[in-house]
Prior knowledge:
Helix content is about 75%, strand content about 0%. It is an all-alpha fold.
Amino acid sequence: MVEVDKDTTQADTKLNAIVKAASKVFVENGYHLAKMDDIAKKAGTTKRTIYKKFGSKEVLFQYILKSMIDTAYARANLLYDKAIPFREQLMKVLYNTWDVIGDDDFVKINRIIIAEHMKKPGFMTDILNEGTQRDEGLYAWMDSAIQAGHVKNCDKYMASEFIIALVEHFAQNPKFLNRPAPKGKKKDLILEEICAMFICRYGNQP
């Protein structure tokens, strides 16, 4: 039987409660309007405890955003398999990218990042860099596709950004304007078109 350190378990539980409460408060109010009192109340703890763990609201905010970004991009982390037809894998990448970029919480995160970056440009630098690093999963997938001969020898970053930009236009941009993103058959058709465009430009099919 595995022995569990009760102090560690309680600390993790308290940390999770703070993170969950802070996530909700930040998403609902943004950074500047979020109050530590509200976070403490929702987490069932005290401001002193939160400051002891994170030091400041800014550190807590960045921790929350990085956690959300990690969770979102983990869902899109795909490995290239040269045994599977390229088009089939590309469609899976497109659907996964859509699900991540178009996720409601992810859209809210981007709204916060953009708003705070405009108010204080240097404040969001680490977060923006974190998001760029998370795109390495798609870059690695693209590199493998190139090495397998299924994608032309090209700039993997540009090819990846081609996918991200097109999916972002349909999956995320409407939500910035409080409009619904395409769903169902319309979403399927859009991704089919993006797939066809990508293969036409970058595909190396025999």
